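Lab meeting, action items carried over

1. Structure of the two-component assembly. Owner: GW. Status: complete.
Input record:
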Amino acid sequence: MRFPILVALALTAAAGGARAEDPPAPATVQDCLACHGDPDLSITLGSGETQSLHVDARAYAHSVHGSALNCTACHPGFAEPPHPAVNTASRATFRAAFRDACKTCHLDNDRKAHDGVHYKLLAAGDTRAPFCADCHTAHAIEPPARPRSRISQTCAQCHAPIVAAYRESVHGRALTDGNPDVPACTDCHRAHDMKDPRERAWLLETPQMCGKCHGDKKLAAKYGMSDKVLQTYLADFHGMTASLHEGKSVGVTRFTALCIDCHGVHDIKRVKDPESRVIRANLVKTCQACHAGAGPTFPAAWLSHYEPSPQKAPLVYAVRLFYMAFIPFVIGGLVLQVGLNLWRFWVGR
Amino acid sequence: MSSKGDTVVRFSLRTRIEHASVMGLFLALAVTGFPQKFYPAPWTRGLVDVLGGIDAVRWLHRASGVTFALLFAVHVVGAVWPTLRRKAALSLVPEAKDFRDAAATLRYQLGTAPPPPAFDRFDYRQKFEYWGLLLGGSVMVATGFLLLFPLLATAVLGGQFVPAAKVAHSNEGLMAFLVVLTWHIFNAHLSPEAFPGDTTVFTGRIGRERLRHEHPLEYARLVAGAPPPPLAGSAVRALALAPMRGALLVMYLPTLGFVMVGLHAGRRLRAALRRLRPRPKPGDEAKESEPPASAA
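Predicted assembly:
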């Protein structure tokens, strides 16, 4: 019973071994480049657009695949002319013909990408939505996050205004300076299975996203930040509401303030930056976005991520302390009497 | 036994409606309030969803809270007005006797005093609960309104009053719930005298025998056909002092619980330690008598 499986495994291993030992057949690449090395090689698509068929030999050789794969690894059946028929009706159909090329090796990321918002748009007929090759390029593929600032460059191809705002943010500036601790686009949005950022479920996850770094003790110590920002947010009215909006909660008529509603999304500034939305001078205006008519004393109702203490919020601290003693005192005193009453009934009868 | 002839009217229809309303509102406020206090707990999500989402829960909570505040106001006016017109006495205001009664009852239960004293229309436990509800209710109503109108609250009082009100509202609510869970449920349902439940507050009638047993002073007046004792002195003064006396009783009972039970436990502990301490004579004799016993 086991024999055929063993044989199959042995054959697979042999095949794998042979593949690894054999140098990539440069002859094949060279064969293809005989035609596709011509910068002017192109076809006219049904839509009238011109589609270049040129492959930059140098860029391919430098790419992550250049030394490992020959052309037919991704283009099976294209070893020699005539090539299989491709739907050349438009740029979109032409690109779609090669969309599944990556999943032979990168099945995991391909699957994730099919869960992502870009694929959703693509499936809905939005031909602008990118798939593998649009972000990674087809032939000049380089490590996507080396350096990490490459990530925002990639996204900027379509999301230029957002990336421009991000580059001016506290995170974006640090990323440009090569700081490894700040989030690039994909750290919040993820690389392949990014969700529609307008989706409620995703928005409600954002506090936890921010909390991943802003609840980290080491990072907090390194940059002199509080590591209690998520905790204090969740303990307050907004955070509590956001928590209760989660899950399959129904009937949400209004949305509560999340981190991004006060701090901004892509243009987050250092909290002490004069342009920050949450610096004291600007805070009332930020509150007024939801609380129309909020006066100058209104922002003090929020403890600015501080935990109540005798210095920061003496009244709140005092009330909390009072109840920490008062509740056990009252309930304890009453329970003792109830217990005594029962005991008396027990022994007295 | 429980034919109408054997019962007397104890609560007016209005009092019964007030009690039923407080009961319903208290439950509604607890059910819609606790998911907000204990929101990280897993059970809150299901409860909130069943009630139609957090926004619906909030509106239910606010509507119940405002209704409670109205009921509270109606009750206070309904108690203050007849007193000012000297049409009724304040039978729920703690007297010196209530403080003595509480101590005497505990001493009896500890077994160091004769059976407890005779109570009037309301005993000290009932007065405690009434004033607990009145004083706790006023904290809940006041902090509730601060939270309902944060713009006004911050403009008039200052920013910190809103988070302070939230802490107070949340804790006072929890305490009210725990007091009802321990004190009220015990005294009105689980106590040997009331089990399985005292129905007087719903029917308005109490058995004659039971009244004689639990409120003998009131019963004696009833039998004699005497009216309730009139309010002595100035009605304004009595009304002004009433909440203070109520607060005093509310603080007094838990203190008494700790002090009396603590003292008693201390005495018992000392007695036990004295018994444990090796006494030279009897201890030695006991030891010497042991070996033969085990050998046999």
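2. GW to write a short summary for the group page. Key points so far: Chain B has twelve helices and two strands. The beta strands of chain B are 7-9, 205-207.
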